[in-house]
Input
Amino acid sequence: MKIYTKTGDKGTTRLVDGSCVEKFNPRVEAYGCVDELNSILGLIRSLLKEKNNPLLTPLEPRLERIQNHLFNVGSLLATEKKDVFEKLPAVTPNHIHTLEQWIDEATIELPDLKNFILPSGSTLASQLHLSRTSCRRAERRAAEISVKEDHYEFVLIYLNRLSDLLFTWARWVNFKMDIPETLWKKDE
Output
């Protein structure tokens, strides 16, 4: 199988369900944002392996699990037809619950957040902040689709919760690496 198909040379692409749409279609934009997020998470996993810090090892397998979920999210967003959507791997309340558990586990160790913080700290934490903003963009694009199609409810909730988790993990990584958070100074 060749990697190039030439089917997109005229500005169109095929969705999972076989529909042909323009590459600027909101659905293509949504799953493209999820793909971008997934790539950033892959970079973070590489950084974790390079750091080889035993304090941070729980993140790597969890990030891999999230990456697999994001492939499911992408395929769901790349599907216009509800009958095909229902045959694809689903995003379930259990997936969302797992993210919430991971947020709660990390939050227990963190000091209370009483101010806004700037995205900064270690390279790893900064990449997690970057992934959070990428996730928020994917969420906004998915929201465009879910306005007209309510069967995307769990996709939207999953992305919302994932951005919360990535923010929490950015803080947790800085905490574990003993790097103080940078508080927002509104008067500067």
In short: The chain is about 60% helix and 5% strand.
